[in-house]
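In the laboratory, one determines a bound structure by crystallizing the protein with its ligand and collecting diffraction data. In a computational setting the workflow is compressed into a single prediction: the sequence and the ligand go in, and a structural description comes out. We illustrate the idea with magnesium ion.
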Amino acid sequence: MTKPICFVTGNPNKAREFKHIVGDEFSSSIVHQKFDVPEIQGTPSEVAIAKASAAAAAYGGPVFTEDVSLCFHSLKGLPGPYIKDFFTKLGHDGLNNMLAGFEDKGVTAMCVFAYCPGPSEPVTLFIGECEGYVVPARGNGNFGAFGWDPIFEPVSEREGEGRTFAQMSAEDKHAISHRGNAVRKVVPFIRSLLQ
Ligand SMILES: O=c1[nH]c(=O)c2ncn([C@@H]3O[C@H](COP(=O)(O)OP(=O)(O)OP(=O)(O)O)[C@@H](O)[C@H]3O)c2[nH]1
Ligand SMILES: [Mg+2]
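The predicted complex, in structure-token form:
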């Protein structure tokens, strides 16, 4: 019997937000599992393809993986896919300080869902983005915010309330976020796989 589709991630916040955006539609057809798969250096797409391939090999069946990049415009897209290490070591203040010498605080949050049907199979990507600015941390994550949410102010908020992701309700974040935009692309594809 073929294995069920597995969303491979070690980050419970990703799985939680996915479920919040999609609802219960796939709760009985997608399983979640954590595998420690290597994350290579490269562009966000190259990193995503390598991670999904490694995850499919480890699981021995169809997988989704999700990779998030935070691309600082003044730094030619860095830290990009390496944001996890930068955030872990530097924190909110350190990420702000990286841009201290630059006027342009613009940043693109990118979410890449990668689907790999099995070991040695080709990978399909679904990419969602959200434009914003790096700002001093605001918001305490009442709504389940995590990571760099407190220092990401979406461009659309500049003319509005000026909230960071961490100051928005989950619904408001997901309506415009990198993850929301990627999930909305991947959902019809998952439906077609399950037919
Ligand atoms: O404020 C945030 N709002 C978000 O919406 C968001 N999504 C991811 N992240 C963080 O960005 C890095 C990506 O690294 P990443 O893609 O390799 O994820 P990960 O290693 O945590 O999980 P996974 O690779 O096992 O799936 C990690 O530090 C994540 O915590 C976010 N931070
Ligand atoms: Mg990771």
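The two ends are 16 Å apart (CA to CA). Keep in mind that any predicted model is a hypothesis to be tested, not a measurement.
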